[in-house]
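Let us work through a complete example step by step.
Step 1: write down the sequence.
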Amino acid sequence: MKTFIKKILHPTRRFIINLKNSIKSIYFRTESLLRLVKPLKIEKNHLTFKVGKTCNEGFGWWTNNYPTWENHTFEIFDKFLNKEMIFFDIGTFSGHTTLYAAQKVKSVFGVDLDPMAYKACLHNIKINKYKNVQIEHTALANKSGETFIDEGTIGSSGCHMSKNGSVKVDSKTIEELMSIWNINKCDFIKMDIEGGEENCLPAMKKFFETYKPILFLSVHKHLGAKPQTIVDSTIHYEYVYDSKYENVKDTLYETIMSRGSGHSLQDYLFTNKPVKFDSR
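Step 2: predict the structure and record it as tokens.
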């Protein structure tokens, strides 16, 4: 009898699961089409902008999570960014930091290797009518050419360079990008590229020494970024502040090694001048 009941209920459960998944898929597709016509209005720290296209995070994430997402990152932006600055956004995703920074600086230049993220960010730039933002679909790397990403990570916040990836993506050096953008100045770099810093940072030592930009770096040691690479590549910086606003310049290697993964633990601000933060 139990076996008989299970045989009856099994396809019923499967039907319900499939129905739920279908409804969810229809909802996301419908909302995506809706937002192309009527973009979502987002507010963060008294700045507002529109979002009309997303990656896998979806519009619900922008409504429910973005207002309090990575508060430390935006505290840094609010403290340092100004209308005279050239801002590099290395790892734009759907525009999480690009759309915000565009209202605070003179110009934003960005890159993302994820084709879905690039298209979403480009769309969001256009609907906000930003004239001071230019982005490229490319990976920032130690040499120009090509790299690869895993198809399964496209559209996710974890998309990164992969030796075993099946999707080919262009790669460019920081010098080539500056030539494409026709600029000879950089004041602030936000870099969050899921371990790609291990590849590109060593080739940027001369760049850091020459242009002396403030660098806000997310270190992903769980994705291959080595503490020694970070230390060696940023040797020209005199100060390194962690998310608690403590100067860890002299203990950067040990700090990276001893802490877990995550933005609250592995975000670092590199500067050439001492910074006075509000007491906390």
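Step 3: interpret the result. Residues 13 and 19 are 10 Å apart (CA to CA).
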